[in-house]
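Z., the sequence and structure:
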Amino acid sequence: MCYSIYVATTSSRDLAAHVGTRIQFERDLWTPEPAALELLIYPNRWFLTREFGGCSCHFRHVAEINDPLFEPYAEWQATDPDDLEATWEAFEVFRSLVEAGEGLEVMNLWEDPSPDEVKSFDVNLSKIPPNAFQFVENVRLHFRPAS
């Protein structure tokens, strides 16, 4: 069982060209594609993985929707430090897209949920500190372009 993180954006920027140390964006989505991908509204789609490829498990994930949705990392959460760094690197890419005026969606799936099992949230990325960002299981985050 694995996490899969899908990114959809209005940007035509080649995210595969991102030069980072811990993450990579792949144009090829997992096959078969999960049915929940029908929830993504933006045309340019990417699969987010680590520098070594494979699934999207090696990021900061939470399995439950909490209020608030994003909380700063605390030591008791026991996330691998390298996974935290990878999450924050992805956050910086997301922020650069939104600040450039692009629409962005990020969907984190555990296995292959049906579309009705995926919750959606509109999120203001500028209100989230980088150390609070996390991927939430079976949640689609919609980040509106900066205005």
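Residues 16 and 104 are 16 Å apart (CA to CA). The beta strands are 3-9, 23-26, 44-50, 61-62, 104-110, 119-123, 135-136, 139-143.

Let me know what you think.
H.
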